[in-house]
Design goal:
The complex is a heterodimer of chains A (about 180) and B (about 80). Chain A has about 180 residues and is an all-beta fold. Chain A is built from no helices and 11 strands. Chain A has a single domain, classed as Sandwich (Jelly Rolls), CATH 2.60.120. Chain A has strands spanning about 5-10, 20-25, 30-40, 55-60, 65-75, 80-85, 105-115, 120-130, 140-150, 155-160, 170-175. In chain A, the strands form 2 sheets. Chain A has an 8-stranded antiparallel sheet with strand order 1-11-3-7-8-9-5-6, with no helix packed on it. In chain A, strands 2-10-4 form a 3-stranded antiparallel sheet, with no helix packed on it. Chain A is globular and about 45 Å long. Chain B has about 80 residues and is of the alpha+beta class. Chain B has one domain. Chain B has helices at about 25-65, 70-75, and strands at about 5-10, 15-20. The longest helix of chain B is centred in the middle third of the chain and has 41 residues, at about 25-65. Classes of the chains: A mainly beta (about 180), B alpha+beta (about 80). The interface of A and B includes residues 8, 9 and 11 of A. Strand 2 of chain A pairs parallel with strand 1 (about 5-10) of chain B, so a sheet runs across the interface.
Chain lengths: ~180, ~80
Amino acid sequence: MANTYTLIASSVLTVATSSVTFSSVPQTFTDLVLKASIGKEDYYNPSFDQYVRAWISVNTNVVSGISGTFMQGNGTAVLSARETETQWWEKGIFTESNSNGANILSSIEAYIPNYAGSGYKLISVDSAQENNTASGDTTRVGAYSGLYSNTVAISDVRLLGTYGNWPVGSSFYLYGIKNS
Amino acid sequence: MTNPTKVIVNCETGETEVLPLTAEEIAQMEADALAAAEAEAAREAEAEALAALKASARAKLVAGQPLTEEEAATLVI
């Protein structure tokens, strides 16, 4: 089991932004952990605001080899499926839009083991929302087990909004773990 | 909505850049978002239809009524 846990880089937003990319990730760790706490996105389309989420991608210009299984729930309905994607994982990785709920924060953690190794790359993601008002409405949880069917080492990790900016104060941390 | 930007944190240098999205990136983001939302709406509709079918099958079983082929398929493994 890994016994070190080192902050590689972080970003606490001072301007609203739609994506955060950690580039030139050092290849000296065993695993990566990405943690994010995200406020509500200023999403533009109320017709789809229940589908607002964060999208995770690795490296640049990936156009194939992304797949995974997700499970998501909101307290009344549960949905699960296995899917092939093109560039990123996003099912069940929830964030929230400005027009939905109140005071909702979304917490996301992604774990990427053996990111610099020579095998296909795995990712596990969990997301949870908390509403710090009494009603606690619209909160959701999700989990994703993803596969990047490529042996290239991961050098970039990106978290992308649906179609708008995340607010100032949202925070993003990339950690490296070594097994010795 | 304010114009989307992107933040790039270079892990080697520690430098952080904030850049505006290009028109092409914004258009792609919108297309991806709508496609994903539509796909999920379709998945949810499918799940709701299955749940309704199961409920109907259960009600008919309790009432002693014959099930349709579709309803029976939701109960038989």
